[in-house]
Amino acid sequence: MPNLNQLPKQVKIIEVGVRDGLQNESTLVPTEVKVELIKKLVVSGLSVIEATSFVSPKWVPQLADQNEVMQQLVGLDDAMTHRVRFPVLTPNLKGFENAIAAGAKEVAVFAAASESFSQKNINCSIEQSIERFDPIFKRAKELNIPVRGYVSCVLGCPYEGDISAEKVALVAEKLYQYGSYEISLGDTIGVGTPGKTKALLERVAKVVPIEKLAVHFHDTYGQALANIYAALQMGLTNIDSSVAGLGGCPYAKGASGNVATEDVVYLLNGLAITSDIDLDKLVDAGDYISKFLNKENGSKVARAILSNRKNSNRKNSNKKNSNRKNQELIF
Ligand code: HMG
Ligand code: MG
């Protein structure tokens, strides 16, 4: 039995559903729906919600409305959003400048530990991608904009197969030295296992402190929650997840959805780890977008809660009906 006292007391969840979740959807989601989803996520208590990406609309048509999304977010009531950060993805200086002009206050750059994936995803080598990020880091420093760094394919690549922890550590260290305040390790195609996760974190934590690391698990092989538990046991406190388990990368064949935020919150609640998230309200957000996309909710926890709600509504209405009948009998 593991010692639960050794687990972190508090965890930060980085909600990536609106960006990672929707970027992979072929049905174009209107800006209003994206903003409504963001509002529901805010209401659930999430404090970091990736809003969109400032990438080429030719590469990711779903996020071509990035300016409109930001415009509507900036227009939201301060009382609602003052405690929430809305980072956006920026692949190059053009994306960064566009993001800042649209009102972004935080950005994320994304590199990979696999050369082939880097080429497919951002059309350049790993080294070229880091060179492209250099001006972003410089400009961000001038403007006091925090930059998050992603490393993709940390536990496997759709084109190259296994990826060594050594390679991941090299890229993570560079992004950290450039000035990323946090490095998110992306299991882009969801092939990781708890053993591999531990080995990876052990290696990367030698060059980036564990408290500056985040994990980002897609759940293709159903190992994401187990991997997160392994990461928590190692003291990791930053978890990326996606409402209703949406997600995938258009340039990583076979990448399924991210681990569902609802499932992560349920896990954390069961371990008495604080996340400050209202699970019921989060389930409402996931239900909203799943219904809009007309697809099954990817969160098992959400499906169970929604089914319980339906059953108890049915019981309540049966009770009301029988009370009414009893009253009719009395009178
Ligand atoms: P490129 O074609 O090599 O770019 O794309 P380029 O510099 O040669 O420019 C070509 C055209 O794109 C030009 O326009 C540029 O102005 C324009 P044209 O003259 O032809 O009209 N352009 C841009 N437009 C808007 N915003 C920009 C931008 N940059 C250039 N920022 C590029 C290179 C990086 C732009 C492209 O490959 C791209 O947008 N890729 C993004 C792919 C993507 O978003 N993937 C998903 C996110 S990563 C992910 O999901 C993984 C993650 O979740 C972690 C994990 O799971 O592992 C983070
Ligand atoms: Mg991802």
Q: Give me the secondary-structure category.
A: alpha/beta
**In percent terms, what proportion of residues is strand?**
5-15%
Name the ligand types: 3-hydroxy-3-methylglutaryl-coenzyme A, magnesium ion
Strand arrangement in the largest pleated sheet:
2-1-9-8-7-6-5-4-3
Query: For the terminal residues, how far apart are their CA atoms?
Result: 61 Å
Percentage of residues in helical conformation: 40-55%
Number of discrete domains: 1
The major β-sheet equals: 9 strands, parallel
CATH fold assignment: TIM Barrel
State mean pLDDT (0 to 100 scale): 94
CATH architecture: Alpha-Beta Barrel
Got a strand count? 9
Q: Spell out the helices and strands N to C.
A: EHHEEHHEHEHHEHEHEHEHHH
Q: Identify the overall geometry.
A: globular
CATH class: Alpha Beta
Helical region count? 13
| Rg calc | 21 Å
Within CATH, the superfamily carries the name: Aldolase class I
Give descriptors for this structure.
binds 3-hydroxy-3-methylglutaryl-coenzyme A, 331 residues, TIM Barrel, 11% strand, binds magnesium ion
What does it look like?
The protein is an alpha/beta fold and about 325 residues long. Helices cover about 50% and strands about 10% of the residues. It is built from 13 helices and 9 strands. It has helices at about 15-25, 30-45, 65-75, 80, 95-100, 115-120, 125-145, 165-180, 195-205, 225-235, 260-270, 280-295, 300-330; strands at about 10-15, 50, 50-55, 90, 105-110, 145-150, 180-185, 215, 240. A 9-stranded parallel sheet has the order 2-1-9-8-7-6-5-4-3, sandwiched between helices. Strand 4, helix 5 and strand 5 form a beta-alpha-beta unit. It is globular, with a radius of gyration of 21 Å. About 45% of the residues are buried. Bound molecules: 3-hydroxy-3-methylglutaryl-coenzyme A and magnesium ion. The site of 3-hydroxy-3-methylglutaryl-coenzyme A has 25 residues, from helix 1, helix 5, helix 6 and strand 6.
